[in-house]
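Weekly puzzle thread! Below is a chain. First person to post its structure in token form gets bragging rights.
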Amino acid sequence: GQRDAIPACSTPPCSPPVVLGATMNFEIRLQPVVSIPVVVIVTVVLLGLLFVRPRHVQLSGYQWSALIGLRLVVVLLMLFAMLRPSFVYTKTEPVAASLVMLIDDSRSMQVADSLGDKPRWETVKHLLQSAASDISRLNKRLKVAAYEFDRDTRKLRVQNGEISLPAMAQGDESAIGSAISDALARETNKRVLATLLLSDGAQRALAPRDTPPQVAVRRLAADNIPLFTFTFGKSGGRERADLSLDDLVTNETIFAKTPTEVRAQLTANGYANQRVKVQLFWESAKGMEVVDTQLVDTGVEGGSVPVALHYTPLTPGEYKVTLRVEPREGELVTTNNEVSTFVTVRAGGINVLYLVGAQRIAGEPGPEQRFVRAALARSPDIVVQRKLIDYNPMGVDIVDLIKRPSTASTGPRTGSAPDVIVLDDVDVQGLNLASWQAMADRVRHGTGLIMLGGYHSFGPGGFRDSPLADVLPLRFGPAQRQSFGDRLREDVQIPGPLHMQPTTPIGVQHPIMKLEGTGAAANRSGGADLWSKLPPLDGANLIAQSELKPNAQVLAIADDAQHHPLLVAGEAGDGRVLAFAGDSTWHWQMGGFGDAHRRFWRQCILWLAKKDEQTQGRVWIRLAGRRVTRGGRVEFNVGAENPQGEPIASAQFHISVQTPDGRTETVPAIRVGSDWLATFRQTTKPGDYRITTTANDTNREIGKAEARFLVPNADLELDRPAAEPTLMTQLAEATKAAGGAALAPEELPALLKRLAEKPTEVKQDVIAKVTYWDTWPYFLVFVGLLGTEWFLRKRWGLV
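Winning reply:
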């Protein structure tokens, strides 16, 4: 017969098992291939056919009885096969037991903070050698299975109670959870009596070997297997001399000739109140070159001190940046003496000075400035510097901000003059006269200026007699002033809601007002359909037609009865000027028109900076961060834009990543809105990774972009070598019901003696099933009966 586990019915037609008889130890089950009534009908039909006699041959009673008997047996055998009976019973069998020992041989086991300040590994080896006789006695009664583990799990040879351990612990990871799972999988055919874990308790593992120990121990608890933990080392670790740099911070995108600051935190253990040399390395064609050096006081023991070094890159490109503290004698680990990242240096761009005034009532800037700055931040060639004017004190002097050297040919840099100035609800009293005069002079010499609406903008802001009155495209009446502390003047404001509409023909053709691409239809309409769908503004400053200067061009109007101007363009000397009466375009972003909001404000800044005639598009890669932990996941976006900064929806991308060892991996991407999202996971090797993406549009190459990210060469084992006895205790407590416990290393011999006294042969119930209808003897009998019946019929002339 056949003995196996009771199978589930898997192939139709199929019926649930029928129990014909059962006791505490056995039962007979039927699993008919079809329903019982069908089996009965088939059997009755076959039995009826037995009595059909041939008419052309006369058989004797003996012959006929022989045929009837053979056919009856065949029918009964067929009935037996259709019912598929099985005899199921329970029996008790002895199962060999095993003792599993897991020994941590990662590099942190070399730290000398165990018993007698000896290395943890030496203590483990000495302890196991002293327990060899106990292990030998145990090994005679059960199977002692010893495994060493770091990243992987390897079985050790056990002979005469001695475990063949390596001379040094050299593993780069401590995969405790995976080691427990591996050992259970390898001992699956045995009954595990107990599991012993000898480690410092610190799980330091990378994917995919980073199974949490708590998850693996749950299986031990479910199988009623006790876990005994032995912790080697101290929770605080041994004090070791070490210098480390962390928390590297710098701008990932800067412009050429922009002074750049690179900051980090220096931590010193064992080198308190000393001066150490910190260097800034900048990548060049010759390799990594030192561009700045600083002597830093380490401060108090174990404390962190900030470090800041500087460099001004001159050439556009992508560069690796490294901060390094010079190693000192006695340092065990030097991989944490440096931190690196990548920065992108761009050839040029637009420097925007955004002056925002505190609101008259709330005392804080309004929401518009946050949304506008966020929209401009999406453009890598626009840098925004924000300054809050809170009127405390009045008349702030910002002449130095305005009169710095021009950046027309070098691109924006810290300490340079702005290419565009944005005034967002700033009253004339917010700055002193010299600042307003400097601003007007800069506009005449080519700096762009835009004034946004607000309770203290234009005439209500007191600009009638200010130096800006000559450069703005508006004239202000003598009775428009909104003084601080006075009731809000409604006669100089237009109540909302107001829909913004481009004028015809000037507005619809102006580059600022084009929101729907650059096709012929868009050139004719200016995207009028999209403008009509944008959420309305909350209100605006009142600009009368009579207030427009002769050179003013009205680009947008309100949809009120008088069609009041909302966006007015003008020129003053070499500079371009915009007067925008609204201050609530943030509703566009909140209403689901974020692309239109971003495009409008980008086009405003490009026009003011006289860079609205760009002819080149770009392909880009946007990384969430340039530093990724080993084994971590890297997500990044790619995209392509036309010269107007609009995404090319039909672009297709080929993305690849070059790993530090020279391999090239192709990375698929999925579309998310107008961008493409890609994920790269093979980051187990430390070093520099290079992402390359090529964009194509209908078999035409749009362009190519590259970006790099770094996987630091961090020493997982020795950067934080402290033992974790708390975790070891938690793991043992999870199997407390089975007898598990956290023990001191010196308690290992006593535990082995107790285990040696326990019964090692474990009995367990085995459920067995015996069937006969699917065996070869049954088949031979069935075929033999059919063959005999055919032989007799042939011999007696029936066929």
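Puzzle host: Confirmed. Bonus trivia for everyone else. The chain is about 25% helix and 30% strand.
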